[in-house]
Amino acid sequence: MPPGFNLPFVLSVAGALLTSAVVASTYVWPFVRAMPRHDALRLLAAFHAFRFLGMNFMVTGFVSSELSPDFAGEVGWGDFIAATLALISMAALSRRWPIAIPMVWIFNIWGTLDLLNAYYVGATKIQNPGLFSAGIYIPALYVPLLLVGHALIFMLLLRPGSEEHRS
């Protein structure tokens, strides 16, 4: 195994991703696909508005003092931007602004890339996931849930004909 590879952590993330996908496909997708498009997107964006939680990576004592401050800042500010974009998307969808759907695209692309980047940087630069301390549940549980949420949003955005009868 490569240096720094932590099988229990990888399995916990994989398990959370698989379980999130199964629960979403069984319970969430049938519910949101039956909703009007703007309402479904607003509901899914609301879950992402809580990404301010990632700012805790920059809070003294929340993560180990040995965790790279550059990594913590990248994660924290990336999540801050994603949460802000989610809130703007929710407002635009609620008010039916013409920029609502483009705003959701921006939020969803940013949010997805931010999470994938955090995993990539974490996997390649952080040799010990124990450095996340109390924050271990963010990449181990919350991020898989968020990734599945982003997938559902992409499915709604790409759904053919959804603009005409789901607006």
Automatic annotation (TrEMBL):
UniProt entry keywords in alphabetical sequence: Membrane, Transmembrane, Transmembrane helix
Transmembrane segments: 6-29, 41-63, 75-93, 100-122, 134-158
Protein origin, superkingdom: Bacteria
Protein name (database record): Uncharacterized protein
